[in-house]
Amino acid sequence: MVGGMHPVQVVLLLAVVGAVGTIVWRVLQWSQARAAASARAHETAAREVAALSRARTRPGADPRQPIDVQSAAAIEPRAEAAGCPWCDGNVHVVEHGARGDGGDRLRVVTLRCGSCGRTQVTYFRVQPAAIN
Ligand SMILES: [Zn+2]
Predict the structure, then answer these.
(1) Where are the alpha helices (DSSP H) in the chain?
(2) Which of helix, strand or coil describes residue 105?
(3) How far, in Å, is the centroid of ligand 1 from the Cα of 83?
(4) Under a CB-based contact definition with an 8 Å cutoff, are residues 67 and 124 in contact?
């Protein structure tokens, strides 16, 4: 006998305590899972922002600041040598065109990442070395 209670009352009390305990435990688990998910979302967002700034500031990302090469043949190997700014995967040329604006012979190379599938555009300028 606990505190003069009837055995049935003791069993009921234990059942109620058990049920409440289960609910509290579930709520705690749920809030922990939510906190973890929110932390993961923040991490993903931070990685995305860092990758975006890498993609924007990498050499050749800006047509006003193309990568200088000495011959057109050097463009594709050079373009593919740089990894994907988002996931560091291998990129390959999917399009290689010329753009003739501002008097400069600009080459526009579109690259696709084999890992994440994102595309990026890199600008090159063919500038043969001066012959002395
Ligand atoms: Zn990638």
Answers:
(1) 7-57, 75-81
(2) coil
(3) 8
(4) yes
pLDDT tens for residues 74-124?
999 999 999 999 999 999 999 999 886 645 588 999 999 999 999 999 999
Encoded tokens for 44: 């993903």
The token pair at 83 is 């990894």
- Give the distance (Å) from ligand 1 centre to CA of residue 87: 4
Stretch 43-72: mean pLDDT: 91
Distance from Cα 27 to the centre of ligand 1, integer Å: 38
Strands 67-69 and 91-99: unpaired
Cα of 12 from ligand 1 centre, angstroms? 59
Residue spans per domain, the chain:
1-57, 60-126
pTM of the model: 0.66
What is the second-level CATH architecture of the domain 60-126? Roll (2.30)
